[in-house]
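Case study 2.
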Amino acid sequence: MQKTHFFSLLLVTTLLTGCWSSSATYEGITFPKTTNSRVTFQEEGVPSDCSAFAHVMMNSKLQSTGKDIASAMHKEAEDKGANLILVGISREMPDEDLEENRFDYYGPEYAYSFERTWLGWKFGFDEWDEAGSLTGLGIDSWGNGDITYDNSLIIQAVFLHCGQDL
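Prediction:
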C-alpha cells in the first residue's frame, strides 16, 4: 500500500513539474541561422520575395530599453532563420512582472508568401486582449538605449525569410 502511494505521489509530482516549466521548446518552422536581420514597421516595407514563417508575440521584461527589446527580438529571429522582422503594434502589460523576455508563437503551419497570403494581425488575441494601453515602439525608440519602458510590453511580430525560393 505504501509503495503504491509513493509511486502515485512521484508520478503526480513528475507530471505537474512539466506544467510549470518555463523552458518551452520552439517546434515551428526554421531556416538556417542568420546574422543580420532587418526590421520594418510597415507591411508595405516587406519585399515581394519574402515568406512569413513565424507569427510571434514578444513579452518584454520589466524596465527594458528600446535597445534591449530590439536586441532580444533580433537574436530570436536570427536563431530561427529570419532575415526580416515585421514589427506591429505594442501594448503595455502593467500586471506582468516579467524578469525574462518571452516569445509566444502562433504558427503558421507552413511558410507562405507574405505578399500573396498575409491576412493581417489575426493571431494571439487571447494574450493581446488582456494587455493594457497601446504604447509607442517604433523607429524612434527601436534600438534606443535612452528610452526605458517601466512595464512589460507585448509586441506583435512576424519573422520572414527573404531572397530565396522555398
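The two ends are 59 Å apart (CA to CA).
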